[in-house]
Here is the input.
Amino acid sequence: GDSVTQMEGPVTLSEEAFLTINCTYTATGYPSLFWYVQYPGEGLQLLLKATKADDKGSNKGFEATYRKETTSFHLEKGSVQVSDSAVYFCALSLNTGTASKLTFGTGTRLQVTL
Amino acid sequence: GAGVSQSPSNKVTEKGKDVELRCDPISGHTALYWYRQSLGQGLEFLIYFQGNSAPDKSGLPSDRFSAERTGGSVSTLTIQRTQQEDSAVYLCASSLLRANTGELFFGEGSRLTVL
Here is the structure.
């Protein structure tokens, strides 16, 4: 079945450090890929997405590139801030045409310290 | 409010009791989803609705779980004869039916603790 694997956390970084959170997927078709973020005390929200191979999604300084050859969608940010502390979820959708059912990874907690 | 609203935010119950969790989606969103987030695990899909019908119930873990949606709006997830392994955060999300963008709008969840 379809699945998403992401690196286990927690990831602890100092402010202004470079961030990479790895995500790989297994899917029978050609999925769209997403990163969702859950800040403390809030609901999940979409951070960025990419719908086809080689697309790059970006938002709030975060980027991820859809790599079909390595079935990966790693999340990166050049300089993290304390406010980026949250749980990050990688997800895929096979775009059934009538729904956007998502398959999520287990989440990676990021803690950024001063 | 403008977002997805869930209630209760916290529920503590005794094993064997029934519980109902409510979701009020964003107005105009015809698709509604229930997910479960257990400690140390990712989000587990439970069920989704298109309008009032549920074309995909594949994620419901047992026949103790059921959900309904009325008026194309509010949905209720019911867990009968709760067990300790049902303890989790139950998340509701909604989206435009044919947007097909993958963007789901999530509520803050209902945390269920079964003693």
